[in-house]
Amino acid sequence: MIDDELRKNIVNYRLSSARNALGEVLSLSRDQYFNAAMSRMYYACFHAASALLIHAGIETHTHTGVRQMLGKEFVQTGILPRELSKFYTNLFSKRQSSDYEDFFDYAAEDVEALYPQAVAFIDAIEKIIQS
Question: Phi-psi category of 59—alpha, beta or left, where left has phi over 0 and alpha has psi -120 to 50?
Answer without folding.
Answer: beta
